[in-house]
Amino acid sequence: MRDQAAIVGIGQTEFSKESGRTELQLACESVLAAITDAGLTPANVDGLVTFTLDTSEEMEVARNVGIPSLSMFARIPYGGGASAGTVMQAAMAVATGVADVVVCYRAFNERSGMRFGNIGGAITAMPLWLSWYAPYGLLTPASWVALHAQRYMHEYGVTNEDFGRIAVVDRMHAATNPDAWFYERPITIEDHQASRWIIEPVLRLLDCCQETDGGVALVITSAERARDLPHPPAIITAAAQGATFDGEMMTSYYRDDLTGLPEMGVVADRLWAMSGLTPDDISTAFLYDHFTPFVLMQLEELGFCARGEAKDFATVERLSLGGELPINTSGGLLGEAYIHGMNGITEAVRQIRGTSYNQVDQVEHVLVTAGTGVPTSGLILGAI
Amino acid sequence: MSGSEWSDMSEAPALPERLAPSMTPDTQFFWDGAKEHRLLTQQCSACNRLRHPPRPMCPVCNALDWEAVEASGRGTVFSFVMPRHPQYPWFEPNYIVALVELEEGVRLVTNLVDVTPADVTIGLPVEVRFDEFAGGLVLPMFRPRRAYGEST
């Protein structure tokens, strides 16, 4: 699959707190925008991939956009862990000849519609897995992550202020991205430390990503066909999904060691093996940042630094534009928008094309990760 | 979901509410055990390994037979957090959620009670206590372990 397929089109809606239109409309707008960006038409598309959580049916998207027939459709589970996985499925379909042009999409009104943290008020039938947590008040993604991250803090002497530097970096990048919700609104570490506790003593408000209404779509086709299309292709050098033993969706508290993200470890091993690259080869990365602690843990799982060393490695200077490893140059989920990680892939494509608002010099390879603390996925994209 | 309309019908104070777990034939023994104030874990009948949360098959030997065995109720705090936002009607503002590792080696999520947040540390020795809630729900909770001989 290495280098067989490429992302050739990206599309998105505006990122807002209240889109004022249906999730299906957001999906259709972003899918059409991506197809147009690729220099293709709906008639060229024969595959669709989305998240299991997406409410927009493939057939409804096809009916609206005018896609005449589909030879491949797939959905990826586990929330934001699906993002890069959609591209992996698309790349596999293209590499095996199952489909020629596949569109991956994710669109939702996550702020104005059904919010992920709003479990307590909305439960009609308690899911079995949640039955071990809900009676005790562990009800939000923030709380599930924090109980895990607290153990990481304990074992490696990590503080909440260490997490705050990730928020500062993301908001710095968002401040110069006009598409970002937090455009022109950077924060300082003092702002972070003054923000209220959401889950004490792990997550403050500014450790938690925002919620967003919006949609993002990506067009994948063969690397060969990509040569004839208008934009420089983002070659899919490596793509992987990962899950590991004794995990749950987002409450994997039963493994011996809770200081890592073993699902991301599986993804990392496969990405490096498939690409033949090492962390030193990565020009810039999008590290899924729904909650800041897991960005530090990802740096360790991916091999950018050793176990327990991310708190020292993750300086604002190193991780921001001009540094050794600029991350989340669009502002990430914290600063730009929370489109379940799909907006990290669009930013990676812009970095390859040279069109980011926060362009890194001489980009060759971009790493993208999907949701953490869940079964997940990742990509390495490359320039030709 | 207020119990207030019923409160006049009995002299006993209304029990507090909690979100109730759903159950399947794989998990019901745990909640039934709590009603009898017994902390039960699932033990593989073939290889004797414990597992929690309960599930139908042993991942090591693939046996389907298992027994519910009573745990000592003693353990230590493996991790803990204090959810502050959003606030829920079912919890006091300073509630503590803990991941407790039992002496037998399995972990479970619970609340810490009879302790202030400032006194909670990872590694704190704790013991089970059973609290009753509305609708017949009984939840295993944990409190700091009392020294030997200390009255309960």
Structure description:
The complex is a heterodimer of chains A (384) and B (152). Chain A is built from 13 helices and eleven strands. Chain A is an alpha/beta fold. Chain A has a single domain, classed as Thiolase/Chalcone synthase (Peroxisomal Thiolase, Chain A, domain 1). In chain A, α1 crosses α2. The relative contact order of chain B is 0.18. Chain B has one domain (23-144): OB fold (Dihydrolipoamide Acetyltransferase, E2P) (Beta Barrel). In chain B, a hairpin with a 4-residue loop joins β5 (96-102) and β6 (107-112). Chain B has one helix spanning 28-35; strands at residues 40-44, 50-51, 66-70, 74-83, 96-102, 107-112, 125-132, 138-144. The chains are: A alpha/beta (384), B mainly beta (152). The A-B interface holds A 117-118, 120, 123, 125-129, 131-140, 142-143, 146-148, 150-151, 154, 196-202, 205, 245-246, 251, 253-254, 258 and B 18-24, 27, 52-53, 59, 78-86, 88, 90-91, 95, 97, 99, 106-111, 117, 122, 137, 139.
Q: Major β-sheet of chain B, in short?
A: 5 strands, antiparallel
Helix amount of chain B: under 10%
- Determine the strand fraction of chain A and express it as a percent band: 15-25%
H/E topology pattern of chain A: EHEHEHEHHHEEEHEHEHHHHHEE
- Please state the CA-atom Rg of chain A, rounded to the nearest Å: 19 Å
Provide the residue-averaged pLDDT of chain A.
97
Uncertain regions spanning at least 5 consecutive residues of chain A: none
- What fraction of the residues of chain B are assigned to beta strands by DSSP? 25-35%
Largest sheet of chain A: 9 strands, mixed
Number of helical runs of chain B?
1
Tell me the quaternary state.
heterodimer
CATH hierarchy, class of chain B: Mainly Beta
Q: Which strand order spans the largest sheet of chain B, edge to edge or round the barrel?
A: 6-5-4-7-8
**CATH level-4 homologous superfamily of chain A:** Thiolase/Chalcone synthase
Largest interface in this structure? A-B, 41 and 36 residues
